[in-house]
TrEMBL record:
One of its GO terms (cellular component) is cytoplasm. Keywords: Hydrolase, Protein phosphatase. It comes from Anguilla anguilla. Gene3D superfamilies: Protein tyrosine phosphatase superfamily (3.90.190.10). This is Protein-tyrosine-phosphatase. Residues 64-121 form the Tyrosine specific protein phosphatases domain. InterPro entries: Atypical_DUSP_subfamB, Dual-sp_phosphatase_cat-dom, Dual_spec_Phospatases, Prot-tyrosine_phosphatase-like, Tyr_Pase_dom, TYR_PHOSPHATASE_DUAL_dom. It comes from the Eukaryota. It catalyses: O-phospho-L-threonyl-[protein] + H2O = L-threonyl-[protein] + phosphate; O-phospho-L-seryl-[protein] + H2O = L-seryl-[protein] + phosphate. Belongs to the protein-tyrosine phosphatase family. Non-receptor class dual specificity subfamily. GO terms for molecular function: MAP kinase tyrosine/serine/threonine phosphatase activity; protein serine/threonine phosphatase activity. The keyword ATP-binding does not apply. PANTHER family: DUAL SPECIFICITY PHOSPHATASE 28, IP21249P. Residues 3-143 form the Tyrosine-protein phosphatase domain.
Length: 157
């Protein structure tokens, strides 16, 4: 069954087949598609797109995309839009990106962020490498909050 699973008002998660359904994209009001894969297509519907070119491999560096994706989701929500995050099966890569967003912009601990994603889409299961990267990201966000009086964006370089 094709479906986009709603995590928040402005965030959905799916597999590639569902996310490429123009009918679902229109019905759910999606305005940005974050494709967390090297090979999966984008829908043909006219929406914003962001590709995160990683494989579902524990050795891949998904961490370096967490801030960019979280900020893109937040920005889209701020404009009244909604984002679908997807990968081939909608289980590992996309789930990690969604959890990172919830950790950064909803200030949720990793366990709560993951539970929120899993409640929306029961099959989610980030691979061990991505889970370790989420743990590292949680520590990084805690450090930023402590150092920056709640500021969530990294300091300028």
């Amino acid at each position: 069954m094709l479906q986009l699973c709603r995590i928040t008002d402005a965030l959905l998660i799916a597999n590639a087949r569902s996310a490429c359904s123009d009918e679902l994209i229109r019905r759910e009001g999606v305005t940005l598609c974050i494709n967390v894969s090297r090979q999966q297509p984008f829908p043909s519907a006219r929406v914003g797109t962001l590709r995160v070119p990683v494989y579902d491999d524990p050795a891949e560096n998904l961490y370096r995309y967490f801030d960019r994706c979280a900020d893109a989701i937040q920005g889209e929500a701020g404009r009244g839009g909604s984002t679908v995050v997807y990968c081939k099966n909608g289980r590992s890569r996309s789930a990690a990106v969604c959890a990172a967003y919830l950790m950064k912009h909803r200030a949720l601990p990793l366990a709560d962020a993951f539970q929120m994603v899993k409640t929306a889409r029961s099959v989610v299961d980030p691979n061990p490498g991505f889970w370790e990267q989420l743990e590292k990201y949680e520590q990084e966000l805690e450090r930023r909050r402590a150092e920056g009086n709640g500021r969530l964006t990294p300091p300028p370089r």
